[in-house]
Amino acid sequence: MDETFTLLPIHLDPATKALSCPSLSTPALTAELHALNQTHRALLTLDTPHQVPPAPLPLNPKRSAAIQKMREQGNASLSKRTPAAHSSNPQAHVLEAIKLYTYALEMALGRPPWEPASIARDELSLLLSNRAQAHMLLQNWPEGSVDAETSTEMKAAPGNGKAWWRRGRCLVEMGRWEECEEWVKRGLEVGGEEMVGELRSLGVEVARELKRIREKEGRGGEGR
Fold it and tell me: Which backbone phi and psi does 5 adopt, to 5 degrees?
C-alpha cells in the first residue's frame, strides 16, 4: 500500500506559537495538535539550559508534592463530612473533596511526556479510586462506577482492590447484577490481595440476588 502525504493548512499563532487548523477540524487532528501545543508549553516552562528536557528521572518534585498535597486535602475533607443535623449543607465536604481530587487529576494528566508514564498512571489510579468513593457518598453511582473502572485500567493490581470493590458496589446500587457478577470475578482474579474478603462478600450478595431474580422469572414463565 502506497503511503499518502496530505498537506494540512496548519496555522501558527505568531504570539503564542500555538498550532491550529481551523479550516479542517477533525477530532483526531484537534487531539494531536492539542498534545503538541501542550508539549510546547511544557518546554517553555523548563528552567534547564536552553530549555532542553531533563532526564526522565529524577522527577521535578514540585508537581509530585502538589498532587500529593491536594490528594491529602481531599482525604481530609472526606474524613470530616458532617451529619445533616449539624450542617446546613452536609454534602459540602464531599463536594470539596471531589473538587480537590479533580484538580490533582488535572495536574497528573498534565505531566510532561518525557516523565515516566508509570508515575502518572499510579497517581491517576489512586486519585480516581478516591474520587469514586466521594461520588459513592453522594450516591452518584454512575460517576463512581466510571471513576473506579478507569482506576483499574490505570492499575489493575496490586494494591487497587478498593477500586474493584467500589465499582462492584456501584453496579449493585444501579441494579446491574449480571455485570457486577462478571466484574467481581475479574477483580478476584487480577485485583491482588487487597479487599479480597469484601469482594467475595459482594459476590455472595450478587449471586443470591441473581438466584432470586431467576427463580422469580421462572415462576412468571410457568404462570403464562
Answer: -100, 125
